[in-house]
Design brief:
By secondary structure, this protein is mainly β. The termini are far apart.
């Protein structure tokens, strides 16, 4: 099996890595691909019975580091209830986010959920239930191959949401 870029033979090297996987699947890994290397890549296989080839277009998309387009905002939430914090982050590949409260990573649980909305590049953390003790500095760190970005906001938990002592009567 040989690999070609246009008519240029890609000899195995530290940069062009040939691999043969299970079921005789052949893989070419190209390290440190440059934008101007986009084009037609061909694999040619030959044995005593004949020769076959297959081609595919190599598309090179540059990495874009995370950029915060809508930062976290300070929030005030009641002791019992729900609070949503949201941030918008762009980048390629899509950044992964880690959320922190007072320097400790926030882990998804029954009362804490994370959501990503691709259309708006929005990342949302929702906290529900008893929020006492969950106030302080909320920070996000967004990372991808291109780098990282972060922002923070203050979450204040105080007071209670209004409730009816008695169920209102119908008129």
């Amino acid at each position: 099996v040989q690999w070609f870029f246009g008519d240029l033979h890609l000899a195995p090297s530290e940069r062009f890595i040939y691999e043969t996987k299970e079921d005789n699947v052949h893989v070419l890994t190209i390290k440190n691909v440059k934008k101007d290397e986009a084009g037609m890549c061909t694999v040619k296989a030959k044995n005593s019975q004949g020769e076959m080839s297959a081609s595919a277009r190599l598309k090179v998309t540059p990495v874009k580091p995370p950029k915060i387009t809508k930062p976290l905002e300070d929030k005030v939430a009641p002791e019992e209830g729900t609070v949503k914090l949201d941030v918008s982050v762009t980048g390629f590949p899509t950044p992964t986010l880690i959320w922190y409260l007072n320097g400790e990573e926030i882990v998804e649980s029954e009362n804490i959920t994370f959501e990503y909305i691709k259309k708006t590049n929005s990342y949302i953390m929702t906290m529900t239930g008893d929020l006492r003790g969950k106030d302080g500095k909320v920070k996000i760190i967004a990372k991808n191959n291109g780098g990282e970005a972060s922002c923070e906001a203050e979450l204040t938990i105080k007071g209670r949401a209004p409730t009816f002592v008695e169920k209102p009567m119908k008129c």
